[in-house]
Write a structure and sequence with these properties.
heterodimer, A: 13 helices, 76% helix, 0% strand, B: alpha+beta, 5-stranded mixed sheet, globular, transport (chain B), signal (chain B), SBP_5 (chain B), Peptide/Ni-bd (chain B)
Chain lengths: 331, 585
């Protein structure tokens, strides 16, 4: 398996180079650049000014020349400065945006998986029971309702309606990241403040995650329960609980590894809509803003990071399969 | 019990600001790229607004456009001899100059006196090729002469029309000089501009970013914390000289909250989390919506602005000729055929006034008595007929086998403009003009291949906005040398391609007319010509929407000051003893 893993890692290098070239080309070939945006806000700007700025930002060069300049720098760990924030792009992404996204998405993934997996099993085992109908209905509703709409409703309820009916005693903040409490107030006060701001976006993000995983788990479990080996185990007279948890569950859970493996790079990419609705400054919003304002270096850092994570987690998922399922071997 | 208390603590809607702790929380939809960059290498509106809290100039203008002294002891005028205009033997102005004396008590926030060297340092960098300032007008023709320790003269040669109304920048030379010298040594012989730019970013970012907050400032507030993506806090600068009487009665801390989603910003206002909203924040529709739900918790203001919405008519190229768009009568007919009064009433409750000139009513140059082009379908039909356009069997006007079909473009996704388009399309249809809507992203419309390449017939009508400080109006949008062409590298802003010899002559005269009364006369005629030929269809001047809670005083702005931060030192709570000096108009 070691040789297999090494071969896959080596194959990643040309793949990532091609991806970086594609991302750079697609970003650079968009119409307009940061200087064009300056020109249209300023009637005093002269052709000399435009030429001077384009040269300074390297925008007077063809896109492939700029790509090789970027690649040469990137190999040495220099990903350039963020045009918008005036700090190194790598620092902007890893210090300002990524921690916020992880703070939101990692708990959302863990908690929703812990809730959805048992619910999915329960729903499958008690197929067509009233609770199965309720859970199925909830899952369809949560998957179908647009996040921006559910988010707006939640904002209205917790930030406007609830304080009105409780005379301001109960409410949740309408978006943002918190940080109103100074560190001197103690870790609990700082944590409670952060949690207050985290709660709404976390709830909205979890709602959808729970629904998706629940549906997935239910379907897997139902399929597993109809397998021959489950019938055989039951025919042998094994107790239902043992059949379910010892034989069926292990196989039904295996595909969840794929689901989680592919979800993790997405986590780093952030939840664009949730972050936008709740003004949560995470990665998704950063990618969107950088694309709009042509902050090329930030775009490259964000998208390359996602590409690397995707290929790495695909490899880890494949390797995890071999560990979980004894039938799979990569020798 | 403890757990219950903790739960209640984080569920409690915290009243975060307001008179209780004499602070101010402002919501905005943008985050500045950096702050207090003395050379404004990023010129976003939010940057200018926030810089207003931390910056100071030799002089400044108030909401009414009156120039007042700040760092300088007095405003230079012809009367007091600090403003001088030098003419040659023919009577032409060849240079002008302004003399300033720095106040003895003008200090940086670390207590270091502000000196002439700070202005000289700023000017040196402003004109250095390695510094990516967007434009250097008028500082590329300015020279500083030191008269004594606190007095200096700025001479503009060729002369600058608004020399007595602009204040040069200043940068803390005692803080920045060493780093600049290191940058200078490192990049002196550097051939690769991109490498120089990286070095420049390293230099400037060590004084202007969240990681490296400005070390010193000159204005009434200094930055104390900036959490990117979240908020920026500034506290009152005790070293600032232009304090109101009893400064402790005025706001001590200002926090800007960055809430990029304007709907979330709206919820923040409704839930009482914000004391005020920035000039960069709400949309007009949100303002209207908020004004219906005030319940005495906040008040919504619609401030007349200097952002002019209009429709450029493309008069360039063969297609424009075929459609008679290069003929003023066609443009007049198109304007007579639409009901702009009804449009602004329907969409903007009449709060955004119809315009008939590119110059707004707030400017001293504004000409009132121009043709107002009220809806006049009969006149429109008459003009179409005079040009040979007659209704076809399908009701669409046609001439020599061609239909009067116009492509109408604007920035896709701007819902206000898209609604305006729908209304205008229907109004033009009523007189036989078929209008096809073809919208593009802003990056395409304002990109290098669209508006400026009018001669290739890429668009017939384009709706967008221009923003200009009314004090510095030069009329240069319409000069014929500003028509973007291959010969001038597609520079210039005269996208319709309008050319008028008399306008050009008047513009060139006005450019060197230093007498305000005479300039007004020249602009009267320029506006009369423009209004007759209507190279662009004037729509309306946008208003700026914001809210503030009752009791917050001196948080005002106008089309001239643009941002409430112009008067930052005097913003305060009436309940804390702040005296109201300016009311929002």
């Amino acid at each position: 398996m070691g040789t297999y893993a090494l071969r896959r890692v080596i194959q990643m290098i040309p793949l990532l180079l091609v991806i970086s070239l594609l991302i750079f080309a697609l970003t650079a070939l968009q119409p307009g650049d940061p200087v064009d945006q300056l020109v249209f806000g300023n009637s005093n700007i002269t052709p000399d000014d435009i030429a001077r700025l384009k040269a300074a930002y390297g925008l007077d060069q063809p896109w492939f020349t700029r790509y090789f300049f970027w690649l040469k720098q990137a190999i040495t760990g220099n990903f350039g400065y963020s045009q918008d924030f005036g700090i190194p792009a790598l620092e902007f992404v890893f210090q300002s945006r990524l921690p916020n996204t992880l703070l939101l998405t990692v708990p959302a993934l863990i908690i929703s998986t812990l809730i959805a997996v048992p619910l999915g099993i329960f729903s499958a085992v008690r197929q067509y029971s009233p609770l199965d109908y309720i859970l199925t209905f909830f899952a369809f509703l949560a998957v179908s309702a647009p996040v921006f709409w559910v988010g707006a409703l939640a904002l209205y309820f917790f930030a406007i309606y609830l304080p009105q009916i409780t005379g301001g005693a109960l409410s949740l903040p309408p978006g943002g990241l918190g940080g109103d409490v100074p560190p001197e107030a103690g870790w609990w006060a700082v944590f409670a403040d952060k949690l207050k701001y985290l709660l709404l976006p976390l709830m909205i993000l979890m709602l959808r995650e729970i629904a998706v995983t629940l549906r997935f788990m239910r379907a897997n479990m139902l399929e597993t329960l109809t397998q021959d080996y489950v019938r055989t185990a039951r025919a042998k007279g094994l107790a239902d609980r043992r059949v379910l948890y010892k034989h069926a569950l292990r196989n039904a859970v295996t595909p969840i590894v794929t689901l989680l493996g592919l979800s993790i790079p997405g986590l780093f990419g952030g939840a664009v809509i949730t972050e936008t609705v709740f003004s949560w400054p995470g990665m998704g919003k950063a990618i969107l803003d950088a694309l709009v304002s042509k902050d090329f270096n930030v775009v490259m850092v964000c998208l390359m990071m996602l590409a690397i994570l995707t290929v790495v987690f695909q490899l880890l998922t494949d390797l995890a399969y071999a560990v979980i399922d004894p039938r799979i071997r990569y020798s | 019990m403890k757990k219950t208390l903790a739960l209640t603590a984080f569920l409690l809607g915290a009243a975060l600001a307001g008179p209780a702790n004499n602070s101010l929380v402002v919501g905005t939809s943008q985050e500045p790229p950096n702050i207090y960059d003395p050379w404004n290498t990023n010129n976003l509106a939010i940057t200018s607004e926030i810089n207003g809290y931390m910056g100071a100039g030799l002089t400044y203008q108030d909401d009414d456009g009156t120039t007042k002294a700040d760092i300088a002891t007095r405003v230079p005028t012809l009367g007091n001899g600090d403003y001088k205009v030098v003419k040659d033997s023919k009577g032409d102005v060849i240079r002008n100059s302004v003399t300033y004396t720095i106040r003895k008590d003008a200090k940086w926030s670390d207590g270091t006196p502000i000196k002439v060297a700070d202005f000289q340092f700023w000017l040196k960098l402003e004109n250095d090729d390695r510094v990516p300032v967007p434009d250097r007008d008028p500082w590329d023709r300015a020279k500083i002469t030191v008269n004594d320790a606190d007095t200096f003269t700025i001479t503009f040669e060729p002369p600058y029309l608004f020399a007595d109304q602009v204040s040069p920048g200043l940068a803390p030379s005692h803080i920045m000089s060493a780093a600049w010298n290191a940058f200078d040594a490192k990049t002196k012989n550097e051939k690769d501009a991109k490498v120089t730019n990286e070095e420049w970013k390293k230099f400037i970012s060590s004084f202007t970013t969240a990681r490296n907050l400005p070390k010193v400032v000159a204005g009434p507030f200094k930055p104390t914390a900036w959490r990117t993506g979240n908020s920026l806090t500034m506290t009152r600068n005790a070293a600032y000289w232009n304090q109101p009487k009893n400064p402790e009665n005025y706001v001590q801390t200002v926090t800007y909250r960055f809430i990029p989603n304007t709907n979330t910003l709206k919820v923040n206002i409704l839930s009482g989390q914000l004391d005020a909203v920035s000039a960069v924040g709400l949309t007009f529709d949100q303002g209207v919506d908020l004004s219906r739900n005030e319940r005495n918790k906040y008040k919504t203001y619609f401030v007349p602005g200097a952002v002019w919405e209009h429709i450029d008519i493309n008069a360039r190229g063969q297609r424009a000729k075929d459609l008679d768009l290069d003929d003023p009568r066609m443009r007049q007919a198109l304007l007579y055929a639409i009901d702009r009064d009804a449009l602004t009433k329907a969409l903007f409750q009449g709060k955004q006034a119809v315009s008939n000139s590119w110059i707004g009513p707030v400017s001293k140059l504004y000409k009132k008595d121009v043709n107002d082009y009220n809806l006049n379908v009969a006149r429109a039909r008459q003009l179409f007929a005079a040009l040979g356009w007659t209704p076809g069997s399908d009701g669409v006007l046609q001439k020599a086998g061609k239909k009067l079909t116009l492509n109408f473009s604007t920035t896709a996704g701007n819902s206000t403009r898209e609604r305006v388009q729908q209304i205008l399309q229907a109004q033009w249809k009523a007189v036989g003009v078929q209008v096809n809507i073809q919208n593009y992203p802003a990056s395409v419309i304002f990109g290098p291949d669209f508006l400026s390449k009018g001669e290739s017939g890429k668009w017939d009508m384009a709706m967008y906005a221009w923003s200009n400080n009314p004090v510095f109006e030069e009329g240069n949008l319409w000069k014929s040398e500003g028509i973007p062409t291959a010969a001038n590298g597609y520079s210039g802003q005269n996208n319709p391609g309008w050319k008028n010899t008399e306008y050009d002559k008047l513009y060139n005269q006005a450019k060197v007319e230093f007498n305000q009364a005479d300039r007004i006369k020249l602009f009267d005629r320029m506006q009369a010509i423009w209004n007759t030929e209507v190279p662009a269809l004037p729509l309306y001047f946008r208003v700026n929407v914001y809210t503030k809670v009752p009791g917050l005083v001196n948080y005002t702005f106008s089309a001239i000051t643009q941002y409430p931060s112009w008067n930052a030192a005097n913003i305060g709570w009436a309940s804390k003893g702040a005296v109201e000096e300016y009311k929002q108009k």
